[in-house]
Amino acid sequence: MHTGADHPAVRARRQAGAEGEPWPTPRPLASTLAEVCPFDPDLLPESLRAWVLDLAERLQVPPDYPGAALTVMLAGAIGRRALVRPQRHDPWVVNPNLWGTIVGRSGVLKSPVLRAALGPLRRRQEGIRCRRGTPRSPASFDSPPSGLHQLGAASYGPGP
Question: What is the pTM (predicted TM-score) of this model?
């Protein structure tokens, strides 16, 4: 792996006598994190709050992990059925998109939280797939989540 001044592109530029100013010496990135507001479960819809807090307690993770996962999962399930009209007297309509991620060091149970949060949606998708007789691709993203039974999370969330 090449870094900084020993990178081949940097060496080639220096050797070729590239025009312009030489690149400045890289500065180290700041090691301090930006200050953020703590996660407030009271901002979640009441129908999700108990589920988020229960998942957080059972998996021993911060409540923002399941809170973010469930919010983004529901936004994806709603999809294009919800539209926003930003201006009252204008026909302009926007299809909102919600993106989210869980950031944490290795081993802080990000994947089990995502499997538990996506479990109800995946079970619903599997039920629809079975009723339609659609075969599942072996490498599909929505294959049944593994590890939910070991986590005791197989019955989480609203049923079909």
Answer: 0.59
Q: Return the bridge partners of 84, or none.
A: 94
Say if residues 104 and 65 touch (Cβ distance below 8 Å).
Answer: yes
Burial 113-122 (b: 16+ CB within 10 A, else e): bbbbbbbbbb
What residue ranges do the domains of the chain occupy?
Answer: 43-98+107-131
- Per-residue DSSP letters for 35-96? P-PPP-GGGS-HHHHHHHHHHHHHHT--THHHHHHHHHHHHHHHGGG--B-SSTTS---B--
Task: Give CA–CA dist 114/95, Å, rounded.
Answer: 25
- What are the tens digits of pLDDT across the range 40-57? 999 998 988 999 999 999
3-state class (DSSP) for residue 149: helix
Mutual angle of helices 46-59 and 64-78, in 10-degree steps: 130
Can you tell me the distance from the alpha carbon of 98 to that of 76, in angstroms, rounded to the nearest whole number?
8
